[in-house]
Amino acid sequence: MLLRLTGIQKRFGGVTALKDGNLSVDSGQVHLLLGENGAGKSTMMKIVAGLQQPDGGDLLWKGEKVSFRSPSEAARVGIAMVHQESLLAPHLPVAENIFLGREPRLPFGWVNRRKMMEAARRLIEEHRFPLQAEWRVDKLSPAGKQLVEICRAIQHGSSLLIFDEPTSSLSDAETQEVFRIVRTLRERNIGVIYITHRLEELRAVGDRVTILRDGETVHTGELSEIGNDRIIQHMVGREIGSVYSRQPLPPGRVLLRVNELSRRPLLERISLQVRAGEIVGLAGLVGAGRTELCRAIFGLDPMDSGSVEIEGRPARVRSPREAVEQGIALIPEDRQKTGLATALPIGYNLTLTDIRKVSRLGWLIDHAAEKKICADYARRLKIRHESFWQLAGRLSGGNQQKVVIAKWLVRGARVFLFDEPTRGIDVGAKIEVYEVMDELARSGAAILMVSSELPELIQVADRILVMRQGRLTGELPGHATQEEIMRLATLQDGGGMLLGDNQ
Amino acid sequence: MIQRLLPFLTLIVLFVGLSIASPDHFLTKTNLSSVVRQTAVINLLALGMTLVIIAGGIDLSVGAILAIGGLLGAMAMEKGLPIWLGVVIGILVGGFWGVVNGLLTTKLKINPFIVTLGTLGIIRGTTLIISNGLPVHQIPQAFSFLGEGNLLGVPFVLWVLVVCALAVHVVLEHTRLGRYSFSIGSNPDAAYYAGIPVAFHTTAVYAICGMLTGLGGMIEASRLMTGQPTAGQGYELQAIAAVVIGGGSLRGGEGSVIGTLVGAFIMGLLANGSDLLGISPYLQQAIIGAVIILAVSVDELRKRKSTS
Question: With 90 as the cut, is the pLDDT of residue B48 above it?
Fold first, then answer.
């Protein structure tokens, strides 16, 4: 046994990313690690690679208990990771990246460049990689960059290689190349852990499979002994529970209409409409184009063609400013980066969208009115805070999200684009966010809600649109099953299984 | 809390310390007036810089803007225009270059450090070309009142400074522009996503900084009674230092008028005190440098403590 994980736990603040992670990998074995977005796959692998430290559980390497405090400690015993986003020095040539930190030395600390180049060339030839040792890394395709990382791992003599969704950004031909390499690694008796969404092709190389759901290992076994339907069931089959249920409203008139919106190659002729009082879910895998659609409607990215109508009138949305003036609000995926000024007081954040509302003559801020508005909305959304002046960054995730929502209420927005509104917030706060969304719908707002959590979509949305590879692939009623959604999100037109985006 | 007040305490300690160390010279009206006159120009530049730094920018061209404002204002007076119009011209020239800085940063999306490093050279070069490198001397005598005159027993520049400081304070704390400056400096993406016209307000901030600098240029010209094309060299660093000592953060979103004034006066008193105590001007520079590092590290420590 090369690597064995038992009962691994990891928490980030109040959020539990891993509850009970278990996994064993042998040498010369390709082990698939599957699970929904946020199931804990990447976290578990980061722990193995020393990027994060577990809060509980045991990590056994070749039978001995170990703990890695840094990636270099994991690398020293022979564990290497090929990352989703390349971690290379872009301005350096391939050879220098392969040897980064372990350059062959001459006396006085000089780098033996000739020896390094030769060794890199030998390595590339031996594996028949389509690379040149002299090429600069920033000129390479994503696949090329991954090859460099693989070379680095081989050069360092790693006995376990972790691939974190390596094919999500690759073309078909490049994917085949990666699979060929995985096979050669297996022949050289190297252990491989492969995190992926794509299932069908990997049956060609995968040996065993472990499925994570909500931070727990729910299944582990031979890949040949389990069908794709069972795998999907394991991935999504959690108890939904009846913690939250929503009474749909009779929908009103159409507030948001999107006509044939295209932004190639990310979005292809998307048409949809959302009525007042309606919550429409938008499902799909990472990279399906859901966030990109919200960005285009909100004026963050230009569209190639198509149009947006608000309340039946054509709306010009070439910038967020124009979108905001049309009554559109975006609650972005990444709260900390684009939703909040975390170093500013809560009150400042709340009135950011409409400071005029609390100003005299349109420019002189009326601090009393501002405080009152903030207190009103904090009460209405149950934002637990100390004072107007508390910095937004010091609130809990759920309360931060409520501040982001509240600032749009202050503005009086009518069309809400929620992009992963409950990501990274705990269950109790999630339900409060649903309640806020429900209240919004009841007051006549139109809501488009992107979520990767299928149970959440099923609970909250009145109907669910599914996207795959930049297209709408179907519409389901709000009470659809997770399997139905997953099928529309993953099935290629030919009927083959594609668990992931194939851009 | 005590650490937030540290700049004030430092200023008070300096003041009391110097009063004790040099009672005959420091606490005299002549000396204190000269401290005010000497620091007024840096103070004005630092007020504009406070706005720019809060909005997440930086302006390295203020020294050069000061020179071109002072020069063109003086030239206008030399050509026979009234004094008030000369001053207005100096201010508007400053504002113009501020707008240029703002447009370059927002439209070309170039880092403001680079933009203003470039305009620093362009403006200084332009000033030298216009003046042929020669100072302008033919200025009406009455113009010296701006920099050297007294009103109600205190230097006139102190009144100018107080009015400007109040105005900038009101802008920062009580107007939309000020609020947007904090937001843009704190998180430009969040501000953009909230529908704020980020480019317009950023440009406005640079323009105000430019106008305050132009006014500083006229005061400098009045004190020297010349339009000096080489005036203001290195002032940008003193202005930045004043903001930073007063609690401003080069990451944006933080800073205050009162902090900046305190920062500028700390530097002014350090220079004045060193003169009075016979400390070499070479050592003075080193002391001020050390104070900058000390002030910022104390501030960092405070922030780290409050976030953890």
Answer: yes
Q: What's the ipTM?
A: 0.83
pLDDT, tens only, A330-384: 999 888 889 999 889 999 999 999 888 888 887 789 889 899 999 999 998 888 8
Per-residue model confidence as pLDDT tens digits over A450-490: 998 888 898 899 999 999 888 999 999 988 888 888 888 87
Any idea which fold A3-236 has?
Rossmann fold (3.40.50)
Alpha-helical runs (H) found in A172-215:
172-187
Chain B hits for A367, Cβ within 8 Å = 174
Best probe of the A interface among B193, B256, B303, B305, by most A CBs < 10 A, is B193
Distance of alpha carbon B180 from alpha carbon B186, whole angstroms? 10
Chain A CB contacts of B176 under 8 Å are: 355-356, 359, 362-363, 365
User: What band does B219 get if pLDDT is binned at 50, 70 and 90?
Assistant: very high
What's the angle, vertex CA B199, arms to CA A448 and CA B65, rounded to 5? 165
* CB nearest B190 (choices: A339, A359, A367): A339
Q: What is the pLDDT of residues A23-51, one digit of tens each?
A: 999 999 999 998 876 678 888 988 998 98
CATH number at B34 reads 1.10.3470
Q: Residue ranges of the alpha helices (H) in chain B?
A: 6-21, 29-54, 62-78, 83-107, 112-131, 144-148, 156-174, 176-186, 188-193, 198-224, 235-245, 257-276, 281-307
Q: Tell me the three state secondary structure of residue A193.
A: strand
User: What does the pLDDT average to over A55-61?
Assistant: 91
- For the cut 80, the answer to whether the pLDDT of residue A79 exceeds it is yes
What are the angstrom distances between the C-alpha of B205 and each of A161, A206, A330, A401, A435? 52, 59, 27, 30, 41
A interface with B, Cβ–Cβ < 8 A, is 298, 300, 320-321, 323-325, 330, 332, 337-344, 348, 351-353, 355-356, 359, 362-365, 367, 393-394, 407, 411
Q: Which residues contact A66 (CB under 8 A, 6 or more apart)?
A: A59, A60, A77
Q: Do B196 and A332 touch (CB under 8 A)?
A: no
Residues B213-218, mean pLDDT to the nearest whole number: 96
Q: Could you tell me if residue B19 is inside a domain?
A: yes
Parent domain of B51: 6-307
Q: Residue A20 and residue A50: Cα distance in Å, rounded? A: 18
pLDDT at A217: 92
> What confidence tier does B306 reach under pLDDT thresholds 50, 70, 90?
low
- Is residue B99 one of the residues assigned to a domain? yes
Output the CA–CA distances (angstroms, integers) from residue A87 to A81, A97, A98, A148, in the order listed.
Answer: 10, 10, 12, 10
The verdict on B86 touching A (C-beta cutoff 8 Å) is no
Closest CA to B45 of B272, B230, B261: B261
Q: Which residues of B touch A409 (CB under 8 A)?
A: none
Instruction: Work out the percent of chain B whose per-residue pLDDT is above 90.
Output: 66
Domain residue limits, chain A:
3-236, 253-327+413-492, 336-412
CB burial readout B46-58, b (16+ within 10 A) else e: bbbbbbbbbbbbb
Q: Note whether residue B1 is domain-resident.
A: no
Residue B256 counted as domain residue: yes
Mean pLDDT to the nearest integer, B229-236: 92
What CATH superfamily is the domain A253-327+413-492? P-loop containing nucleotide triphosphate hydrolases (3.40.50.300)
Residue that the structure tokens 């934002």 belong to: A383
What are the distances in angstroms from CA A286 to CA A331, A388, A484? 18, 37, 17
Are residues A341 and B183, on separate chains, in Cβ contact within 8 Å? yes
Asked if residues A408 and A353 have their Cβ atoms less than 8 Å apart, the reply is: yes
Closest CA to A340 of A328, A353, A321: A353
pLDDT at residue B308 tops 50: no
pTM for this one? 0.76
Q: Are B176 and A356 within 8 A, CB to CB?
A: yes
How far is the C-alpha of A120 from the C-alpha of A116, rounded, in Å? 6
